Amino acid sequence: MASRMELTRQILFMATQVLAEHPDGLPVSEMWPLIKKRLPGVDEQWNAGGAESNTPELALQWKSGGLVKSGWVTKAHRRWYLTPLGRIALKRHSDVSSFTAGSHAGYHYWEQNKAGFEAAKRLAEAVPEGSWVAAGDLASQTGLEAAKLVGWLQGERPEGWHRVLDADGGLPDDAHADERLRKEWQGLLTEDGLEALLGMVPQDRRISAADLHQLVIDDPVIDDEPERPRRAWLVRGSNVHGVNLVGDWLAEGYCSLPASKLRELPPGAAQETIQAAVDVDYAHGSYNDRLKKTAEFHAFLSRMREGDLVLSNDGGKVYLGHLKGGPAFRASVSNRANLQRPVRWLNPKAPLDFADDLPDEIAAKLATQHDVLDLTEFVEELERLIEPGPSRPPVTREMVLPDAGAELADELLVDQDWLQECVELLRDRPQMIFYGPPGTGKTYIAQHLAQFLAGGKPENVKLVQFHPAYSYEDFFEGFRPVQTADGQGVTFKPLPGPLLRLVDAARQHPEEPHVLIIDEINRGNLAKIFGELYFLLEYRDKAVDLLYSSAEGTGQAFTLPKNLIILGTMNTADRSIALVDAAMRRRFAFVELHPEETPTREVLGRWLAGRELPADAAHLLAELNARIEDRDFKIGPSYLMRAGIYQDAKGFERVWRTQILPLLEEHHYGDGVEVSKRYGLPQLRQRLGLDQEPTP
Question: How far is it, in rounded angstroms, from Cα 58 to Cα 35?
């Protein structure tokens, strides 16, 4: 029976499906009966969960906050509406587990950035009628991701939400506005006196990044916000045009970038503004160099905030400090340091040791070639390095895999020692492949082991299936077509695949195991699918530049978190596909599941005994496999482990005739073997002295 938590997840999932069928929205009173039709018995299951402190209908209302914060649902005039982002989420997350994980990720981002969203709310409310602000500018001033900000605005709808637009004055692409939302949005803009021409409102009504920055300065609540999450940054200075500036930084209390050709831009400038300036001022540089500089200047001008941690290294010496103010353009020798920020360096005379003091994951990030690098995911570890002391609670970031329990072993019908060996293999190297003939329970065991390792949290487990057409873009990250805001065309945006989404979730909860199951792993072109990730499978403590994200100049070196476990399955009987190459074999532990070897050999007998069924089926399967000469084509027990085939006298024969014999026909195609005579049930029963079928 489902727990109340599981029921709540199902209710929220069904609620969005109901809203998808009612574009004009529904009040909760009308929505709840439709949800109940899709979840028969939900009230009874809920009441069986304990004291009736609330009802499932109340749970729907209380727990819908994650849908709103993610921008998937909005509520207005006592009605609920599914937003265009919500419709995209339903297509992307087709099951309860995936949908819940996506919603939780959106809510977690909001929770981690409450101060930024509160600041965005106040600034949106401060935009006067007849004016508008660019989403990129608002995101830069509040320290939020523009896409997350636009989504949140669609869900929460604070006053002035409709005045947050793209830099060109159109509806934000990140809103994925449909016809209904476009009409509503443009109607509100028209009421404000912002008439759109070709979908764009006038540029002269835009509040500039500098004016928006002044609003932030003038708002004491925003300016004095104590709860804003601190970020951490690497800024390199040991080799700026061949000169080491770190000593000067420490002595004078600053860090800098060599923006020698960049025009003066205001603090908080939007990325689009910086990109346009770089394209002109650095026109002589390559495309990739301009992207890299845009990302670095944007981080330095707009994303960094006073109080953020900053790190720099001089060879093996590592220095940490706090940013003490905003960016400024200043004169410097040879223009090597003309874009500066003041820093209070914390350990100028006692540097940390790169090799001995830094955690491996941070050291891996620093080994990349970026001059500015976002290290916020490691802010807790860096704070521990600069604020040691017994009063500071330790930060637990290491995953601990649980020992295999007897309950799981009994459920899987395998020996506990064998299961524990699988856990030990994953502790040594978090990648493993179950391989063997069909019907040996490879996927079944992988799924149950994954759920066990993940502590029963479905959002921590993801299953994908490889096939010949599967690619890096499907698996990890790639450009995908998305509809433009006006609905009249298509643009391409980089979208994460299942691996990158699970990696992001694993980074948010580094102490929790996250498991990716790759079914039929050898059916895909592994070198094509994994790309540069091949390297990270063997070296989790190293970082690589990504094919797409790094090419965009985002300054994000990528590592595979140590709490990401990969379980693969491989069917050895399918000769139409290649087995994995030597490079992949070196990166995975391989565990065989074979009908004639432990633990698979004993599974069917245990299953039959547990249901008080005769052992005839196990004997017949053993005799069948004894007659199959090719080891990779022997038949696994899963075909005979369905209770329904033992309900009547013909069930067992039907499975044998329609599922097992066709496999063997294919195996012996063209070699003259009469499959029915060699492997038929009458012949096997006669050989074993069994006169009738296994009885119910």
Answer: 13
Q: What is d(CA 373, CA 483) in angstroms, rounded to the nearest whole number?
A: 31
Q: Give the integer Cα–Cα distance in Å for 288 and 493.
A: 17
Name which of 556, 527, 554 is nearest 544 in CA terms: 556
Q: Classify residue 41 by its DSSP letter.
A: T
**Could you give the CA distance from residue 162 to residue 625 in angstroms, rounded to a whole number?**
68
Per DSSP bridges, beta strands 372-374 and 317-323 are unpaired
CB atoms inside a 10 Å sphere around CB 344: 12
Chain Cα centroid distance, residue 290:
28
Q: Which residues pair with 342 in a beta bridge?
A: 254
Q: In angstroms, rounded to a whole number, what is the distance separating the alpha carbons of residues 548 and 479?
A: 8
> How does the average pLDDT of the chain come out, rounded?
86
Containing H/E element for 519?
A: strand 514-519
State the Cα angle at 675 between 672 and 678, rounded to 5°: 105
Read off the tokens for 305: 């905030």
With CA atoms as reference, report the closest residue to 267 among 204, 337, 208: 208
Q: How many CA atoms lie within 13 A of 609 on its CB side?
A: 9
Distance, in Å, from the CA atom of 313 to the CA atom of 385, rounded to the nearest integer, reads: 15
257: nearest Cα among 377, 366, 373, 347: 373
Strands of the sheet with 461-465, listed across from one edge: 461-465, 514-519, 564-571, 431-436, 589-592
298 in the Ramachandran plot: left (φ > 0), alpha (ψ -120 to 50) or beta?
A: alpha
Distance CA 433, CA 592 (A): 8
H or E element in which residue 622 lies: helix 616-627
Q: Transcribe 593-615 into DSSP letters.
A: --TTSTTHHHHHHHHHHHTT--T
**Sequence-ordered list of residues with C-beta below 8 angstroms from that of 188, at least 6 positions apart, any chain:** 162
For 215-260, where are the E strands, in sequence order?
232-235, 254-257
Instruction: Tell me how far apart the alpha carbons of residues 695 and 374 are, in angstroms, rounded to a whole number.
Output: 66
Q: Is residue 336's pLDDT more than 90?
A: no
What single-letter DSSP state applies at residue 243? B
Nearest Cα to Cα of residue 149 among 64, 86, 81, 71: 71
Q: Report pLDDT for 486.
A: 55
On whether the CB atoms of residues 643 and 696 are closer than 8 A, the answer is no
Which pair of structure tokens corresponds to residue 586?
């070196």
The CA dihedral of 464, 469, 475, 476, to the nearest 10 degrees, is 180
Provide the 3-class DSSP secondary structure of residue 16: helix
Q: Give the other-Cβ count within 10 Å of 512's Cβ.
A: 17
Q: Report d(CA 485, CA 181) in Å as an integer.
A: 10
Distant-in-sequence, close-in-space partners of 242: CB < 8 Å, separation ≥ 6: none
Residue count of the chain, please give it.
696
Higher pLDDT: 583 or 82? It is 82
User: Per-residue DSSP letters for 449-515?
Assistant: HHHHHTTT-GGGEEEEE--TT--HHHHTEEEEEEE-TTSS-EEEEEEE-HHHHHHHHHHHSTTS-EE
579 DSSP 8-state letter:
P
**Under a CB-based contact definition with an 8 Å cutoff, are residues 150 and 109 in contact?**
no
Between CA 256 and CA 323 the distance in angstroms is 11
How far apart (Å, rounded) are the C-alpha atoms in residues 81 and 36? Answer: 18
Tell me how far apart the alpha carbons of residues 314 and 243 are, in angstroms, rounded to a whole number.
Answer: 12
What confidence tens digit (pLDDT) does each residue in 29-67 have? 899 899 989 888 888 888 876 655 568 887 888 788 889
pLDDT band at 397, cuts 50/70/90? low
Contact 86, 73 (CB under 8 A): yes
Q: Angle at CA 467, nearest 5°, toward 464 and 473?
A: 70
